[in-house]
Design goal:
heterodimer; A: 338 residues; B: 291 residues; mainly alpha; globular
Chain lengths: 338, 291
């Protein structure tokens, strides 16, 4: 499938799902749950751009996600703040917040990449864990965005595009999912993706072969960070009460590692598959069992998959296809010999 | 001005005591990460297991927490060996330790944390012992026993480990495997067996480190995370394999944190340690006493 065709098909699928679900589901809860699943598609796809394609593990998803969320809080409070200086601006629309959240997170991603990407893989992973704590400490001590007490966010009274506000958030998240999956697939088939794969397989050899490794890694951290920030930007309006402990929840980091690992890290299909599967299981388990237990399920699944099927579901399918192809060839040879 | 000098000196001394405890927490990671090259980010989870073991025996039988920590050492040693076995067969043997191994330990950390939440809830737990209250007054110095006792025992533990590593046969083999596993194999010693013992020891230290933790402060399942950055910072800062380097690094971070907490407020303290780590990694990945 050509790139342009894929974009068209992805956009059409996204649009069809949005329209159909909005007609079919009258229960608001569906949109609350679907929003979370879509949010994880964006997060795990973003994680996979750095983790799956270049092989650098990022445990700091929560930090980038929260930066997006808190940049929205700042923008939300901006009109009121500027009013005290007698500057009147209208309330900032959510799509603008998403863009700004993406830019801010992308810049932070670039910064971390610059600071840490000269490190060996494991050190990079530990540094990202540290980053999450540093960012959380900054937010906790920053009173303007609520500090450790948290902040209430009042949704705009009217949702654009008709329907309820949660349906609007859900639609936006669908758009973000389509965009991030499209970007991931484009990377995979471009020179950029080849460079990323070269870094993953052998960074030293790639460097020696003339691949501009540092620049490529910076592109990956920036893109990955930006997409995570965009996924976080609508969060304040989704939860309506934002506080650091739950925004920086380790669950975001675990999920965005677990979903690509379980789905398969080598192709864009993996994170999407993992996010839909794990996200749906978690939503169902939260409702039917308990929210602590569903996190346990994610952790256990992650461990089981890295041990038993390190290439994820996509890897399992590929291996099976390869085996079948090999068996077919063997049969053909036998026939030729006979 | 006299008052703030007093405050400064007390902050520094408190930092040194805190650093002694941090050294006990980091000694395991210095063995597993520094020497064996296994990035066990689930180490804080084992430390919390140690804390909860101390809590259980202390609250039900009234046993001394440090005694529990010592008695539990073999149990943690066996757990460590079992985890290494699993790790070896699943990742090292297949040559996939980098990404998959990290994800494995991350999952382990998360599973342990959630299990602790399910068993003990999210309430803060603490232990009772004669030394959890009161303090030693030396002139203007004020040394709380709950910091002093872990400090002393932690230094004893590290000194014993240092003796073991430099004097005993197995200890020297562990140091050898950290330098060159193949060469060890040529000397007819199995690097896998040695690594398994070393990893067992690294987890066993968590038993004591965990009891120190619960003596120093009340705990709940998610505080383990605060220690991930700290222990790796100390390990890297201390030069990966050197115990003396690690102790110095631990005290340095302890002092910086304690001064920050005293003069700027405790909510800023974690950022300092992690900021330290980020800067260290960026500027001098080889640490203070690099190889």
């Amino acid at each position: 499938m050509r790139i342009g065709v894929f974009w068209l098909v992805a956009a059409a699928v996204g649009l069809a799902v949005v329209v159909l679900t909005r007609f079919y589901f009258t229960n608001e809860y569906f949109f609350f749950a679907a929003y979370v699943v879509l949010q994880y598609i964006v997060l795990s796809t973003a994680w996979n751009i750095l983790g799956g394609y270049t092989g650098y593990i990022n445990f700091g998803t929560g930090a980038f996600f929260a930066i997006g969320a808190y940049s929205s809080v700042v923008l939300h409070k901006m009109p009121a703040l500027l009013k005290t200086f007698d500057i009147v601006i209208p309330a900032i629309p959510l799509p603008v917040m998403i863009l700004v959240g993406g830019v801010v997170s992308g810049i932070v991603g670039l910064g971390t990449g610059y600071l840490t990407l000269r490190l060996r893989g494991v050190f990079f992973a530990i540094a990202t864990l540290a980053l999450a704590v540093v960012v959380q400490t900054l937010i906790v001590n920053w009173d303007f965005v609520g500090g450790s007490r948290g902040i209430y966010m009042i949704r705009p009274p009217k949702a654009p595009l008709g329907g309820s506000y949660i349906q609007y958030l859900y639609t936006l998240m669908m758009v973000l999912s389509v965009i991030s999956v499209g970007i991931a697939r484009w990377i995979e088939r471009s020179r950029l993706g080849l460079g990323f794969a070269a870094i993953r397989d052998d960074e030293l050899a790639a460097e020696a072969g003339g691949v501009p490794t540092l620049r490529l890694k910076l592109i990956a951290t920036t893109l990955s960070g930006a997409l995570m920030g965009m996924a976080g930007a609508p969060l304040p309006y989704y939860v309506t009460y934002l506080e650091p402990a739950s925004t920086f929840n380790l669950a975001y980091a675990v999920n965005s590692v677990a979903m690509p690992v379980i789905g398969g890290m080598t192709s864009w299909v993996g994170p999407v598959l993992g996010a839909i599967l794990l996200g749906t299981i978690q939503q169902l388990a939260t409702v039917t069992i308990s929210s602590a237990l569903n996190l346990l399920i994610v952790g256990l699944l992650l461990i089981a998959f890295v041990i038993i099927a390190p290439n994820g579901i996509v890897g399992l399918v590929q291996a099976r296809r390869r085996r079948r192809a090999a068996a077919g060839e063997a049969r053909a040879e036998q026939r030729a010999a006979a | 001005m006299a008052v703030s000098l007093d405050l400064l000196i007390n902050a520094i001394v408190a930092g040194v005591l805190l650093g002694g405890f941090y050294a006990a927490v980091s000694v395991g990671i210095t063995i597993s990460f520094g020497m064996l090259d296994i990035a066990n980010i689930a180490q804080p989870a084992f430390i919390l297991l140690g804390s909860y073991a101390a809590y259980m025996f202390n609250s039900s039988l009234g046993l001394d927490p440090i005694l529990v920590g010592i008695v539990m050492l073999p149990v943690f040693y066996v757990i460590g060996m079992a985890v290494y076995r699993l790790y070896y067969y699943s990742f090292e043997l297949r040559g996939e330790q980098a990404i998959q191994g990290l994800a494995f330990f991350f999952g382990l950390l998360f599973v342990a944390e959630v299990s602790l939440v399910l068993i003990f809830g999210v309430d803060y737990r603490f232990v009772e012992a004669p030394y959890t209250e009161g303090s030693l007054h030396l002139g203007m110095l004020n040394l709380p026993f709950r910091m002093l006792i872990p400090f002393i025992f932690s230094l004893i533990m590290i000194a014993l480990l240092q003796l073991y590593l430099t004097r005993s046969f197995i200890g020297r083999a562990i140091l050898a495997v950290s330098q060159d596993g193949l060469a060890l194999q040529l000397m007819a010693a199995s690097p896998i067996r040695i690594k398994q013992i070393a990893f067992g020891i690294s987890v066993a230290t968590c038993s004591l480190a965990g009891t120190f933790l619960i003596i120093i402060q009340p705990i709940e399942p998610s505080i383990g995370r605060d220690y991930i950055g700290r222990i790796f910072a100390i390990c890297v800062l201390g030069g990966m394999t050197s115990f003396p380097g690690m102790v110095i690094a631990a005290m340095l971070i302890g002092i910086v944190e304690s001064i920050t907490a005293t003069f700027y407020g405790p909510s800023w303290a974690p950022a300092v340690a992690f900021g330290f780590l980020l800067v260290t990694l960026a500027v001098r990945p080889a640490g203070l006493a690099g190889r």
